[in-house]
């Protein structure tokens, strides 16, 4: 409204109700001077960016504003949840502004990974999704890999542009920005967005020590990922922290794998072959017969089959079945957004199905590794 209080850091309208949304300020902090939102407060006082999230409509409005500016965009995606975290509509909104794609969490792939192959794979995926990228960097915000490359790119392409960092929630955007703050920022300077007087961009300008700014945008919530569907306690099990230990299963047709009670994979038809599961080590995989799978789930979801526990199983939407016919001679992953993927190792072809909570994005793709 007209007399709404605004954050003197980023200009956002302040609110005291919802901590995960932009503009949150604890009631008590309203008495402090200067009046700044919690997000700005943390950057200023703890050198720490924290996540705020907005829905897709809200985010598209923000993106629209970037299109009209002279900007360099850093688009962060999560390699573990590539198709789930890619902002596929980005191209329409950024106009002619250059985009650097930062593919984060590469530390999760096995150490022996062929990174050139991964890079080629990412390039192909971008093409398929209609995303033009000026450059692509594979990085790990957690393990501090790829950052020198990223900063080199930023200084190569930025010219006199502002740098906007965009990404879905949980891709590691805060972790990455915190790295940048720690290594390159000058927080003696003000955080303010005085350059955009009177506007509310929901963006935080972080001064770098060369007088330039990095602009943190809110994370976009994509609801088709497990990370948005499970409870906070199960999030730790679903999102891997350590390098994936791929699990190989030799299956006959008519066999099923359960991923806790989170998802189920049926090998319906095909020659005996092996499938490699790339999922968090904290999700137990349970093998059974396809004909027993329904009753096993009905009787043991939340107990033998966990996570989640019984209480949280009940909170998940009902399973939807996704059937796929894997072509002969293809190199295919069955991708389950936020949970991981299953690599089909044989090139003999197969018919398989995935059961996952309604709304979870499940698809096949060319094998990542
Ligand atoms: P944001 O929502 O995009 O700001 O994401 P955060 O920075 O809060 O990170 C989300 C989760 O991903 C946290 O549990 C981080 O520890 C984890 N994370 C962030 N960067 C990396 C990374 O490079 N590798 C791995 N394995 N995890 C990461």
Topology summary:
Layout: H1 38-46, E1 53-54, H2 56-67, E2 71-78, H3 82-85, H4 90-94, E3 99-104, H5 115-128, E4 135-138, H6 147-157, E5 162-167, H7 173-184, E6 204-207, E7 213-216, E8 219-220, H8 226-229, H9 232-238, E9 247-251, E10 255-259, E11 263-269, E12 273-279, E13 285-289, H10 290-300, H11 310-313, E14 319-326, E15 332-336, E16 340-344, E17 350-357, E18 362-366
Parallel strand pairs: 1-8, 2-3, 2-5, 3-4, 5-7
Antiparallel strand pairs: 6-7, 9-12, 10-11, 10-13, 11-17, 12-16, 14-17, 15-16, 15-18
The protein binds guanosine-5'-diphosphate.
Residues 51, 104-105, 107-108, 140-142, 167, 169-175, 219, 241 line the site of guanosine-5'-diphosphate (GDP).
């Amino acid at each position: 409204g007209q007399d709404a209080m605004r954050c003197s850091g980023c200009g956002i309208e302040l609110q005291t109700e919802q901590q995960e949304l932009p503009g949150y300020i604890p009631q008590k902090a309203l008495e402090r001077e200067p009046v700044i939102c919690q997000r700005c407060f943390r950057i200023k006082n703890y050198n720490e960016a924290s996540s705020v999230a907005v829905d897709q409509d809200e985010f598209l409005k923000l993106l629209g504003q970037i299109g009209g500016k002279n900007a360099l965009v850093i688009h962060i995606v999560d390699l573990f949840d590539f198709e789930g975290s890619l902002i596929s509509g980005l191209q329409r909104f950024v106009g002619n502004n250059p985009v650097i794609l930062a593919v984060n969490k590469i530390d999760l792939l096995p150490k022996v990974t062929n990174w050139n192959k991964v890079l080629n794979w990412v390039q192909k995926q971008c093409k398929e999704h209609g995303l033009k990228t000026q450059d692509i960097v594979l990085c790990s915000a957690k393990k501090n890999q790829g950052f020198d490359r990223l900063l080199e790119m930023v200084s190569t392409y930025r010219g006199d542009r502002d740098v906007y960092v965009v990404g879905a929630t949980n891709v590691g955007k805060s972790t990455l920005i915190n790295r940048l703050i720690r290594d390159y920022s000058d927080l003696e300077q003000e955080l303010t967005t005085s350059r955009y007087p009177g506007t509310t961009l929901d963006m935080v300008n972080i001064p770098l020590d060369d007088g330039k700014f990095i602009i943190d945008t809110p994370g976009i919530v994509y609801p088709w990922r497990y990370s948005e569907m499970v409870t906070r306690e199960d999030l730790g099990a679903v999102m891997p922290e350590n390098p994936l230990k791929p699990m190989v299963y030799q299956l006959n047709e008519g066999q099923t794998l359960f991923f806790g009670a989170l998802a189920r994979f049926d090998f319906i038809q095909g020659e005996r072959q092996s499938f490699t599961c790339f999922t968090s080590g904290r999700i137990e995989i349970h093998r059974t017969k396809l004909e027993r799978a329904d009753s096993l789930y009905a009787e043991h979801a939340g107990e033998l089959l966990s996570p989640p526990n019984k209480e949280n199983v009940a909170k998940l939407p009902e399973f939807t079945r996704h059937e796929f016919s894997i072509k002969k001679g293809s190199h295919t992953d069955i991708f389950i957004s936020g949970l991981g993927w299953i690599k089909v190792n044989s090139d003999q072809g197969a018919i398989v199905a995935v059961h996952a909570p309604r709304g979870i994005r499940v698809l096949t793709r060319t094998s990542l590794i």
